[in-house]
């Protein structure tokens, strides 16, 4: 199937599919006319990629994990490298959450202090541009 059909069947635009191919996540043959030709397994592969991206994994992480993936969800087989990679990603997410929690706490403290100093004249938080 050509990229347009793969796009229609997966709901992923052609630009993203080309990106997946460039990242080594998706493979296509080239026809005599130079067009990309995907086999039927590409539909499942794209669905796997989308699920893994939704879990916050990078394309680099996904390239590493795909050989261990089976099914649409996907289910990840117990490749030892896979578990190590996912634990590493989980640690990075935990670190990001910790940093965000500290930033949120500091910002809340600044808001409290500003309000104690006569914050009635400040616009409501919703009106302040992000």
From TrEMBL:
The keyword Repressor applies. InterPro entries: DNA-bd_dom_put_sf (IPR009061), MerR-type_HTH_dom (IPR000551), MerR_fam (IPR047057). The keyword Manganese does not apply. Keywords: DNA-binding, Repressor, Transcription, Transcription regulation. CDD domains: HTH_MerR-like_sg3 (cd01282). It comes from the Bacteria. Residues 1-68 form the HTH merR-type domain. One of its GO terms (molecular function) is DNA-binding transcription factor activity. This is DNA-binding transcriptional regulator, MerR family. It comes from Jiangella alkaliphila.
């Amino acid at each position: 199937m050509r990229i347009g059909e793969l796009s229609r069947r997966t709901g992923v635009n052609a630009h993203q599919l080309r990106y997946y191919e460039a990242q080594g996540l998706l493979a296509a043959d080239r026809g005599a006319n130079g067009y990309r030709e995907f086999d039927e397994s590409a539909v499942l592969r794209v669905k796997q990629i989308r699920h893994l991206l939704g879990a916050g994994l990078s394309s680099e992480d996904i390239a590493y994990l795909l050989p261990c993936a089976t099914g649409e969800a996907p289910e990840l087989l117990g490749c030892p490298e896979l578990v190590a990679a996912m634990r590493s990603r989980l640690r990075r997410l935990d670190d990001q959450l910790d940093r965000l929690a500290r930033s949120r706490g500091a910002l809340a403290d600044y808001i409290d202090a500003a309000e104690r100093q006569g914050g009635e004249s400040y616009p409501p938080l919703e009106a302040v541009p992000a």
